[in-house]
C-alpha cells in the first residue's frame, strides 16, 4: 500500500509441522497476516489465523488489497485466503476483521507432550470455499470399487474435526495443499474475489522418535533419514504426491549427485548444511542399501558433531511423521466426491458467494460419463476490466477464460505443458495481451515455454 507506506504479507507455520510439544503457546508470529512499515520494518499490527499450528496451514499466498462498502461505510481492506478454505477481510489500518470472526473450542487431546491451543478462529463471513470436515458421506462415488477401497482406509483414520491433533493412529487432514494455494487470487474493481482451490485430503500418521533409538537393528543412516527426510518422503521411503519415492533412488541417481543434492538442495528440496559429512555418508548407505563403515576417528568426530548440533542447529521432535500421503482411491483420484478443484467468486461487500464451478477435467473420466470433476490445481487467476477471469493451473494443461458474472467457460486452450503459474495481462501499442508460463511438472510432462495471447 504505497499511500500508507505499508507492506502486507502472510507468514509460514512453525516447525516441526505436525508436532508442537517443544513450542508451547500460540506460536507468534507464525500463521499471521502482517502489516509492516515499509520504510522501517516496524510492525504495525498482526492477525494470527491459526494458533499453535499442528496441520501445516501456513499462509500460502499473498493477500489482496481493495476497498469495500459495508453497512454504508467505505473501508480499505486487506483480504487473505487460506489453505483451509477461509477468507479473512481485515481493516488495513487496524487489522480488525470487517466481518465477525468467532473463536470456538477445538479438540485438545494430542500426542504426549503436546499442547494444542484450546480455541481456533472461524470467520462467519465469507463462508468457507472448501469442505471443512470429511465424513463418510463425502467419500468418493465415482465407482463402487473406489468407494469400498477408500472407506476401508477411512475407517482406520480419525476425521471428525478439522482441528484434530495428529496421532499415531492416523488423521485425515484438510488444508495441507489447499484450499487456497501459492498462486494467489484476483479481485476486480467491483470488489469480487476470485479464488481457485484444491479439495484433496491427506493422511498423516505420527510415530514416537524414541522407538528408533531403542529399536534393535536400526542403522545410524536410518535414524538420520527419519529425522531429516521422512517428513516428505515417508518413513517407508515410498514418497507421495510431489515427493518422490526413494526405494529405487540408486537406479536414478549417482552417489555424487546425491551428496551434492543433500548439501545444496534443488527445487523444493532444501539444503541440509547441519548434517555432518559422516552422517551424509551413513544416510547414503541406508538409502543405497549398503553396509555402514566408520573408522574410530570418524566415530569420535561424529560424537563431537552431534554435541555441536544440539547447541547450534536445534532439536529432534519427540514425534516424527511415519506416513504422509494423499487420500486417494486405487486409480489415483482423490478419495472424496468431486469437485476436486474449484474456482469461486465471492462478493466482498456482502461476504456472499456468487458462484463456484469445477476447475479442470480428467478426460478419461469424462469418457466414462463422469461429469467434470475439477483437478488439483497450482497457479492463480487474473481478472480483466472486460469481465474475463483467466486461469490455467490444472493438470489437463488447459488455460481457460471464465465469465466473471456467472462462472461459465467462454474460451479454453490446451497448452504444450501444464501452466502451473498465474497469468499476467498487459497492454502494448494499444493492444491487450495475456501471458502464461507453461512449465509443467508435478508429475505431468515438464517444459519451459511462455505462451502469449492477444485479447481481440
UniProtKB/TrEMBL annotation:
Record domain Cytochrome c: where: 216-291
Q: Name one Pfam family in it.
A: PQQ
Q: Which InterPro entries match?
A: Cyt_c-like_dom (IPR009056), Cyt_c-like_dom_sf (IPR036909), PQQ_b-propeller_rpt (IPR018391), PQQ_rpt_dom (IPR002372), Quinoprotein_ADH-like_sf (IPR011047)
Keyword Iron included in the entry's annotation = yes
Know the name of this protein? PQQ-like domain-containing protein
Q: Which UniProt keywords apply?
A: Heme, Iron, Metal-binding, Oxidoreductase, Signal
Annotated family: Belongs to the bacterial PQQ dehydrogenase family.
Amino acid at each position: 500500500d504505497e499511500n500508507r507506506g505499508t507492506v502486507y504479507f502472510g507468514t509460514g507455520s512453525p516447525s516441526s509441522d505436525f508436532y508442537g510439544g517443544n513450542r508451547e503457546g500460540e506460536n507468534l508470529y507464525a500463521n499471521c497476516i502482517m502489516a509492516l512499515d515499509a520504510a522501517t520494518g516496524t510492525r504495525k499490527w498482526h492477525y494470527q489465523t491459526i494458533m499453535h499450528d499442528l496441520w501445516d496451514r501456513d499462509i500460502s499466498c499473498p493477500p489482496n488489497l481493495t476497498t469495500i462498502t459495508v453497512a454504508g461505510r467505505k473501508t480499505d481492506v486487506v483480504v487473505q485466503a487460506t489453505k483451509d478454505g477461509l477468507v479473512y477481510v481485515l481493516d488495513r489500518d487496524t487489522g480488525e476483521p470487517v466481518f465477525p470472526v468467532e473463536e470456538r473450542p477445538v479438540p485438545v487431546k494430542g500426542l504426549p507432550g503436546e499442547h494444542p491451543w484450546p480455541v481456533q478462529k472461524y470467520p462467519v463471513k465469507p463462508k468457507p470455499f472448501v469442505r471443512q470436515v470429511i465424513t463418510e458421506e463425502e467419500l468418493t462415488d465415482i465407482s463402487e470399487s473406489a468407494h469400498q477401497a477408500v472407506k476401508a482406509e477411512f475407517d482406520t483414520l480419525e476425521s471428525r474435526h478439522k482441528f484434530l491433533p495428529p496421532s499415531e493412529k492416523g488423521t485425515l487432514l484438510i488444508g495441507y495443499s489447499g484450499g487456497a494455494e501459492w498462486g494467489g487470487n484476483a479481485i476486480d474493481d467491483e470488489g469480487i474475489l476470485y479464488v481457485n482451490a484444491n479439495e484433496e485430503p491427506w493422511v498423516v500418521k505420527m510415530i514416537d522418535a524414541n522407538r528408533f533409538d531403542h529399536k534393535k537393528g536400526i542403522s545410524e543412516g536410518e535414524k538420520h533419514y527419519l529425522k531429516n527426510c521422512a517428513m516428505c518422503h515417508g518413513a517407508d521411503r515410498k514418497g507421495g504426491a510431489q515427493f518422490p519415492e526413494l526405494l529405487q533412488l540408486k537406479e536414478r541417481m549417482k552417489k555424487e549427485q546425491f551428496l551434492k543434492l543433500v548439501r545444496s538442495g534443488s527445487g523444493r528440496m532444501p539444503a541440509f548444511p547441519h548434517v555432518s559429512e559422516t552422517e551424509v555418508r551413513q544416510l547414503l548407505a541406508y538409502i543405497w542399501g549398503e553396509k555402514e563403515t566408520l573408522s574410530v576417528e570418524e566415530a569420535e568426530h561424529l560424537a563431537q558433531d552431534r554435541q555441536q548440533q544440539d547447541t547450534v542447529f536445534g532439536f529432534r521432535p519427540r514425534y516424527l511423521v511415519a506416513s504422509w500421503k494423499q487420500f486417494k482411491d486405487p486409480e489415483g483420484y482423490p478419495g472424496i466426491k468431486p469437485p476436486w478443484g474449484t474456482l469461486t467468486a465471492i462478493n466482498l461487500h456482502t461476504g456472499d458467494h456468487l458462484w463456484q464451478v469445477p476447475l479442470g477435467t480428467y478426460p478419461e473420466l469424462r469418457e466414462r460419463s463422469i461429469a467434470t470433476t475439477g483437478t488439483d490445481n497450482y497457479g492463480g487467476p487474473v481478472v480483466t476490466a472486460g469481465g474475463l477471469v483467466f486461469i490455467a493451473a490444472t493438470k489437463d494443461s488447459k488455460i481457460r477464460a471464465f465469465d466473471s458474472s456467472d462462472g461459465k467457460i467462454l474460451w479454453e486452450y490446451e497448452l504444450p505443458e501444464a501452466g502451473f503459474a498465474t497469468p499476467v495481462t498487459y497492454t502494448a501499442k494499444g493492444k491487450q495481451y495475456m501471458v502464461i508460463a507453461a512449465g509443467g511438472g508435478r508429475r505431468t510432462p515438464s517444459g519451459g515455454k511462455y505462451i502469449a495471447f492477444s485479447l481481440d
